Amino acid sequence: MKCPRCKKPVEDRFHHCPYCGSALEKKKSGIGAVNIGLMVLAGVQIAAAVTGLILVRNGTVAAYYLRQGNYDKAVSLLEKYEGGKDNSEVMEQMTWNAKKLRADYDAGKLDYSSVQHTIVKLRDAAEPQTAGTLDGILDALESEQAGLQAKKNIMLLVNAGDYEGAIHSIQSMEKSEAWSSYSEDFRTELLKQKTDCADQMIRELVDSGRYFDDGDGRGALHLALDQKEWYPGLFSKADQWVKDALRKLNTREDWLTLVHICNTGFPELQGYQQIEGFSYGDYVGIQMGAATNWASVECSELLDKINEQRAQNGAAPLRMDQDLRRVAGIISGKMLPTDQTVDDAKHTNGLNITKYDCYTYQFNTSMMSDELLQAMIADTPPKRHFSETVPGENLLNADWIDSIGIALSVRQNGKLHWFLIATGDREEK
Prior knowledge:
alpha+beta, 5 strands
């Protein structure tokens, strides 16, 4: 500094000029108000920077970005400052976000790919405990996605009519480790699909007439017996469907088919006798009932045709006699009739037919009433006790007979046995 009086340079440590002794005035060294303000601001900024860095490092900022749904930013911070992974707020928020993503997927708001990708990203940036929780959510999501794809494949099989293939696919899913991870509703839906497929498959076999064996050992009852573990009651249900289908075979064209089905299916039916609720007698009853019904129809139609022909030949119509019908029934069950067997039948079970008789029969044949009438017109069926003096005398023209008994029986091989016996005004010889 300079002395204000003598103008000579003086060091700052002197309070008086060493040259002239004048007192020296010291300059104020304080900082101005503006400078103080700047210094305070700088301090605040430094403090804020330090605080911000702490918040970033401890994961608080990452948690904020997670709440905002800015997963890329949050993951970037957690990867850069790994210490933030242990922040409890980050851990809770990550789990919440993963569950929210899964919920949005279930609600159809997000597609599987984006949800799976985001949860994987969060899992990779999480600490071990949270990563394990997210892995569980991922496993359930991926398992269900695989299940949904399997379900689509099953529906393709169903739509193609491959019900057995669909059933086997569902069975494989039931045995898989992933089965327990599926939701209860999803498992219930698959099990119902399996039941529906089993029902549909058996119904189609029944509807196509493949009741016992279609040639490959895969008839409806065979299949229901072999695979009844598909669900309880499958066999009993198939058994009832078959019975209902057989009862519908009650037309003239298919009643012999029913007899054939029951006869050829005998070994299989016998094999089912140990199954609870199954009754072979039910099948025998259906067969016999149909045979009896249509045998009666055929006999009545044959009598009408005989009487039409007799009217054309100028002969009186014949009436059905119940006693003769019983005799005819006894003889039609025999392999071959003889005069002795006919005579024995006429005097059995309280019968005592004394009128003169004649009879016609046709055994081991497949002729129905129409065809049998044509054979009678041609006079080809064997006959007994017709007049030897009247050539061609038979049931269609003999004027001395007035009552008739007609019976038709079906042998186990499906062959028909006709027997017709008539009486008239001649006394028995």
